[in-house]
Amino acid sequence: MMKQSLLKRITTSAAIADGRPVIRKQNLIVEEVLGRLAEGETYKTLLRRYSWLKPEDIQACLLSAQQLVGQAQPELS
Q1: φ, ψ dihedrals at 16, nearest 5°
Q2: What is the per-residue pLDDT for 70?
Q3: Which CATH number fits domain 3-65: 3.30.590.20, 1.10.645.10, 3.40.50.360, 1.10.10.10?
Q4: Which of 1, 9, 14, 67 has the fewest CB neighbours in a 10 Å radius?
Q5: Contacts of 49 (CB under 8 A, 6+ apart)
Q6: pTM score, two decimals?
Q7: Torsions phi, psi of 32, nearest 5?
Q8: Where are the domains of the chain?
């Protein structure tokens, strides 16, 4: 799936999750998915936990995190 198509799955709205990035206008914030993955949860367990979640949604979370980190400017010494 193309990067832009994946990123369309990540949305923000002041009315949902206080404007934090969420998956497909649902009340599941990207930070939650990333945190669960960091704690060792797998795609499979995430997909079971949230029946509406798709593998592409998880990929979109990872891609958005990659882009955010790529935009970070290193501190100058």
Answers
A1: -125, 125
A2: 84
A3: 1.10.10.10
A4: 14
A5: none
A6: 0.86
A7: -65, -45
A8: 3-65
